[in-house]
Amino acid sequence: MTRTLFAFLLIVPLLSACDVFGGSDDEPFPGCIDPTALNFLPSAEIDDGSCFYQGVVSFYVTSEANGPVDIFINDQFTGTLDGFWSGQPGSCDQPFTVTITGLTNAPRFKWTAVAGDGTVSGGEAFFVRGCSFIRVF
């Protein structure tokens, strides 16, 4: 009986120490749990909404009426649209597009299109997961 009491008195404090120092009752580890995300964290156990992905935006025009169109992103020249599509391109990075890549958790960016005839168009946009399109004229 003394041995059983001694073992009990020894084991109970050890079990309590396990609870304090990371035993089985730990909170689940938060992070990005999507393996397709750029910041996937294999050790994460619950999704904390921090996942981000690569996004692609293609700029295009549907007419050659305005001539070649220069595309600026945040006031930096990015490329020239020197052709047109009769509808939306089928996928990003096609001929006659200016395509940029960024992260879905990035802030909005400003775009400006300046046509050969002096017409200006522009706006703000942000990256979404996958490919998206902006028709400038």
Walk me through this protein's architecture.
- The structure is a single chain.
- By secondary structure, this protein is α/β, with parallel strands linked by helices.
- It folds into 2 domains: 2-47, no CATH class; 54-135, Immunoglobulin-like, CATH 2.60.40.
- Helices cover 14% and strands 34% of the residues.
- The chain has one helix spanning 2-20; strands at residues 30-31, 46-47, 54-60, 69-73, 76-81, 98-103, 109-115, 120-125, 130-135.
- It has a 4-stranded antiparallel beta sheet, with no helix packed on it.
- The longest helix has 19 residues, at 2-20.
- The termini are far apart.
- 13% of the residues are buried.
Q: Any key phrases for this structure?
A:
1 helix; Immunoglobulin-like; 9 strands; 14% helix; 2 domains; alpha/beta; 4-stranded antiparallel beta sheet; 3-stranded mixed beta sheet; 34% strand; 137 residues
Task: For the largest sheet, list the strands in their spatial order.
Answer: 5-4-7-8
Silhouette: elongated
Average of per-residue pLDDT values: 86
| Count of alpha and pi helical runs | 1
Our Rg estimate from Cα atoms comes to: 28 Å
pLDDT < 50 stretches: 1-23
Tally of discrete structural domains = 2
SSE pattern, N- to C-terminal: HEEEEEEEEE
Look at the structure and give the CATH class of the largest domain. Answer: Mainly Beta
What is the strand content?
A: 25-35%
CATH topology of the largest domain: Immunoglobulin-like
Q: Which sheet architecture does the biggest sheet show? A: 4 strands, antiparallel
N- to C-terminal distance: 90 Å
**CATH architectural label of the largest domain:** Sandwich
| Residues in helices, as a percent range | 10-25%
> What structural class results from the helix and strand content?
alpha/beta
What's the β-strand tally? 9
